[in-house]
Amino acid sequence: MDLNLIKKLVRIVDTSGVTDLEIEENGLKVKIAKKIRNSQIITQPQFAPQTSLFPHHTSSEKVEETVISTGESAAVMHEIKSPIVGTFYRAPAPDADSYVQVGDDVAVGTVLCIVEAMKLMNEIESDVSGKIVKILVENGKPVEYNQTLFLIQPS
Amino acid sequence: MFNKILIANRGEIALRIIRSCKELGIKTVAIHSEADADSLHVTFADEAVCIGPPASKDSYLKIPAIISAAQVTGADAIHPGYGFLAENASFSEICTESNIKFIGPSPQMIRAMGDKAFAKDTMRKNGVPVIPGSDGLIPDINEGKKIAEEIGYPVIIKASAGGGGKGMRIVWTDEEFEKAFQTAQTEAEASFGNPEVYLEKYIENPRHVEIQVLGDMFGNVYHYGERDCSVQRRHQKLIEESPSPALDIQLRNKMGEAAVLGAKSVNYEGAGTIEFLLDKNKNFYFMEMNTRIQVEHPVTEMIYDVDLIRQQIIVAAKRKVETKPQKPNGHSIEFRINAEDPSKNFRPSPGKITSLHFPGGFGVRVDSHIYQSYSIPPYYDSLIAKLIVWGKNREHAINRGIRALEEFTVEGIKTTIPFHLQVLQDSRFLSGNFDTSFLDKFEFKE
Questions:
Q1: What is the ipTM of this complex?
Q2: pTM of this prediction?
Q3: Is there a contact between B67 and A118 if contact means CB atoms under 8 Å apart?
């Protein structure tokens, strides 16, 4: 089976709401499943869910990939967190290229993204060198203080 | 009407504001520091945004973070509550510049009433009785001594830029004047960077009686009677009640009219409180005006049947005050429950609440953000609940207060509930005949 195809399928499952995907081709079957864990945080009454940009943190979702290719999920990731409240942008301008992509190597000081607050563009730099493993926020979405933006595998 | 309000505060007042917003059908955004992620106001708001680390200066006082949070959530108004940025003129200004309605007064109004000498002067010019004193700042010692003799000792020297008891000196005789003047100036320079002082007659052991006002943009200003806040420890209020045992109908009308006059003279909009000192002869003097909602607003709500937070929002949305004052009904007392140990000089007692039961029943109201298994963060003030009772008269309210305080159960931390119960047995408190020196003479028995 084509490894690139499998990687594409994994990305589809990862970035969409799909939790299970099964494909059969030429007698070979591939099944990809997403595990969702709810961690119980507080012993307080549960309240109605909100549909908003910032739903409360009464439970957190840890999304892990059960993936055919191994190795990536075992390592300890370094989190890049937002130091301010604002809007997350992948690129310096709407029509420009993104600062980084998944898989890119970065060094200390490499600009990863912009968080815009009150019309000021704040460049967020990496504080480690390593490889971008995951980008956790969509372009143009709001972020809060200390929200994780990137996962970097330190080198 | 506003679509979405961001509450720039925490704790019980944030929850209070959320409640009035919900009743008006307005969406709410809670902001919080990392230490408040499990706070009740975060849970009950429609949306929540973490804006910074625990320290207030990096979160609840951080203007850019709060404005940014309003922008990313699309809030069209901000309610500042009390404390924090509620009387910060810059914040009011930045909100306006960012096209967000600040639910409170304009920056000019905040500056005007924040300048104590100016506020006093404005009131005096408009016929509101003020404490006799120097006409503005004292230029030098000799001038000061002359004015002190005119006013009559004892006098108090106060820093113009000051507060919190700094840059203040009480002078009993003219021999002491020179030294006191110099010391006050030095202290004022050190504390506020401004040595300017003014002079006032010192009123010994006054009662602290304040009048609640509401104004709208149409020039309507109403008063909702008084609150007696004389039970204070180190200038912090602990028990407030309405009506004041010291006021009769005539005095209430006089003070209420003076307050309305003062508020009208500055075209006041929103909720405000005019604080007066009441001396032993029932003379009242303007002390200062607070241009925000106050902690003790619930006792007025109980007596005048008015939702003051709701009125703040409505007025800010360019509407008329909904609830005009009617005849007051009954007697209401508020007890501030702090996470402090009264047997250890009110030492703060943060920690985890292991068991909690709020009192209830007829005439009992609890405004609080605490819940069982909540951990009180050590970074903020110690107010954890307000217990407000209503009764047909003062005696009835006190009895109900005792009943409710005895039912109020908080375990895992120390609270001031035992202190309040002892005050309610004190003969001076029960007589209604007390002033701001009451707690100086009160001893908590362990």
A1: 0.76
A2: 0.82
A3: yes
